[in-house]
Amino acid sequence: MAHVVRDTTKSDKVDRYFLDYLFAEWEDLPEVEREWPTWEEPSRLLFVLEWPMREDRLATLRQWVADGLLTGKQLGRYRELKALIERHRPIVERLLSEDDPTIPRRAAP
Amino acid sequence: MRERTIDASALERNVAGAVSEWRALGDSDDTFAVEGMRPSFACAPSGEDELSALLRAANDAGVAVIPWGGGTRMSLGFPPRAADVVAETRRLDEIVEYEPADLTVTVQAGITLAALQSRLRAEGQMLALDPAAADRATIGGLTSANASGPLRLMYGSARDLVIGTRVVNADGVISKSGGRVVKNVAGYDLNKLYVGALGTVGVVVQLSFKLHPLPQAQSMLVAAFRTVDDASKVVAALMRSPLGPAAVELLDATAAREVRPDVALPDGGCLLVVAAHGFEAAIVRSLRDLRELCSAATDLEDVRDEAALDTLSAALREFPDPSRAGSALLKAAVPPSRSASTLATIRREARDAGFEPALLSHAGSGIVYARLSPQTWEDDAVLRLGVLVERVRAHARGEGGSLVVEACPTAAKRLPAFDVWGDPGSAFPVMQALKQNLDPKGTLNPGRFIGRL
Asked: What is d(CA B87, CA B59) in angstroms, rounded to the nearest whole number?
């Protein structure tokens, strides 16, 4: 049985719960936008409801960067993440910017 | 009280046949009362097929169903608009699949957390959830209430640990979700929809979790401080440091007397408990660094003995047990950097309102619990509670946070302006649309959730 026991440092948490997580969420956005018209209404509603949690996690990461808590390697990844976010931010704005996010938006038949 | 009169014979004819274990409840039977409302019937489906048949029949007949795990979080939420039938999950208590090598487990929703942890412990693993009342609380109930404990800081909450769900929807349809977000063309991963939804959009019958190895070594540092301000400086320094504690708990003097009666604290003093999990060498290093951070402490103690660690962990974990009779429990969520100041503000506001609170904060996670236990909850105390909730909520909002009343007398919940959840703001139309989509007839726990959904 493989046991991966954590070290008691913040570094592991930064990688797993912030950088890995945020990269996955932001990288997926073009695919989310492509598939959006095929999603059922609960899926779209939940995406809209949950998006602010990603922004909260990003804000925490920014604070840790400001506090100087990231390693050099992590800072490199953070810079890549920022570039990714800049590229994909317009997608989020399109998905969340409808007048009424509770109205399902489907592709024209 | 019974909110409405239902046609019992029609209900039994239409719904009771769906499940093998069904019984009528007497008019004075409080076993499954929710905020004073007594359901007419209780049933315990043997599996998801029976639960599915029950919900389909109840949904068709306009019958309100109250899902019931261990009953330890029934104080959460508004009084239901209707409560006709209780559906217990206690017979769904199997471990469906456990692969220690994969660090994953799939369980039925009615298994208690303690029973699951016992099985996992034998393999050197754990589900990293440590809420109160683990011996009675079911996995399904804890997930539906999104309950967590001190270890949330290191391992996250149920939202972070659930990797799959199987749910019976209000119309009886069984659905399953899990896997990566966009690889499933059916849409967004709906796992998280059910975490914290209080059983209002579906009854969770099966859950898959990611697991963690039991830590190789553990320790706690217990530090006493003259003032909350002294302790808050340590918490701030700790959260800005490279140290990654498993838990950071801050207790006022009243809560400290309950958790560590052997440590003498002045009124206005507080206790800081920092837990570390990891390799032995890392623990030793952490303790050394923590001691340096706590230079202003009046008393410092390393806790390394297993029995002492268990006792202290249990006391911290059980402090915010919402099922404790006679108490009100407020839970503020604020940015972690504001935990200590929020604790101090709640203490002042509570005293101004005539209460003597006991306060505990998961300071690293920004959670602050206030327990109020007056001699009696006469009308005046209920009104004072209403005022206190408004004031503390205003403070929490000002800090960018929120306040939920996890337990309080039913009389308070029936006050016109009393809101146990708080205003969800712009998210509410989305939540309404979800409820309308998944439970349009209001079959499941009607009225208990945010905005009385």
From this structure: 13
ipTM over cut 0.95:
no
> Is residue B185 located within the same domain as residue B244?
no
CB A48 within 8 A of CB A96: yes
- Reduce the DSSP state of residue B156 to 3 states and report it: coil
Range of the domain at B333: 328-420
Judged by DSSP in three states, B95 sits in strand
Which of B243, B427, B431 has the CB atom closest to A8's CB atom?
Answer: B243
Residue B429 lies inside a defined structural domain of this protein: no
- Sketch the domain layout of chain A as residue ranges: 10-96
* Counted domains in chain B: 4
Amino acid A66 reads A
Count of Cβ atoms closer than 10 Å to residue B158 Cβ: 26
Chain B closest CA to A19's CA: distance in Å? Answer: 15
| Cβ pair B245, B276 in contact under 8 A | yes
Query: How would you classify residue B326: left for phi > 0, otherwise alpha for psi between -120 and 50, otherwise beta?
Result: left
User: B270-307 pLDDT, tens per residue?
Assistant: 999 999 999 999 899 889 999 999 999 999 999 999 99
Neighbouring CB atoms inside 10 A of B377's CB total 19
**In 3D, which of B386, B329, B395, B385 has the Cα closest to residue B358?**
B329
Instruction: Say yes or no for a CB contact (<8 Å) between B277 and A12.
Output: no
